[in-house]
Specification:
mainly alpha
């Protein structure tokens, strides 16, 4: 019996099994991400790309935050051993544990970005000088990258919301590679959407979340080392 167990353990630790398990995990998480977000995101496919639709876009994006958080949690806690794969269980555990905490950050972020982008789009009608475009864009970038840090922190650690926000801002400066990497990921996502459609981006969701997690590794390591016991 122990020989069989040892054989399975060796099989589960091999390089081919690690690749196979990673593909399996990503496929399962892709299905779960689609399950938890597509009902809300489908209207985005028929919405015109007009600034007047930005409030609706923000509304439809609300379920995306908890889903991404759950996928981050599952990827961080899932082993690659083929004998011990539970991505779906980890996804739902992360979803239940973090959904409300994530929404406390995700919803205000969407509101801020909606206000900023609407003001940018209609700055002429609002009587704003074109000089306001630069500071508004900079604020939107900082809000987005700070929220990206905060989403990872909330998904993987148990801190109060105000402490999450402080850490998120702190690590914008402390680990500059993280916000730069997240900015590149967002640029790539925008490029995919512009060239094809939102549907193509949805089909790459689990891969995008994995890249997001890898980019955030330096911040995660420092938080674990310096702010947890």
């Amino acid at each position: 019996m122990s020989g069989v167990s040892q054989t399975w353990r060796q099989f589960g630790d091999g390089p081919l099994s690690r690749i196979t398990s990673r593909v399996y995990i990503l496929l399962v998480l892709e299905l779960l991400l689609l399950l938890t977000t597509v009902p809300a995101l489908l209207p985005l496919l028929v919405l015109g790309r007009d600034a007047s639709n930005l409030p609706l876009v923000a509304l439809f994006l609300v379920p995306l935050g908890p889903a991404i958080s759950a996928a981050l949690y599952a990827l961080r806690h899932q082993r690659t051993d083929l004998t011990d794969l539970h991505p779906a269980a980890l996804f739902w555990r992360g979803y239940r544990a973090n959904a409300f905490a994530v929404l406390r950050i995700w919803v205000p972020t969407l509101l801020w970005l909606t206000v900023l982008t609407v003001n940018l789009a209609y700055r002429g009608a609002a009587g704003l000088s074109s000089l306001w475009a630069v500071p508004l864009v900079l604020i939107a970038v900082v809000v987005t990258l700070g929220a990206a840090n905060a989403l990872v922190i909330t998904s993987l650690f148990d801190f109060r919301t105000r402490d999450v926000l402080r850490l998120a801002v702190h690590f914008l400066v402390r680990t500059p590679g993280v916000p730069v990497g997240n900015a590149l990921l967002l640029a790539a996502a925008a490029g995919i959407t512009a060239v094809s459609s939102e549907a193509a981006l949805m089909l790459l969701a689990s891969v995008a979340v994995l890249a997001y997690l890898r980019v955030s590794d330096p911040m995660i390591h420092l938080i674990r080392k310096e702010f947890t016991s």
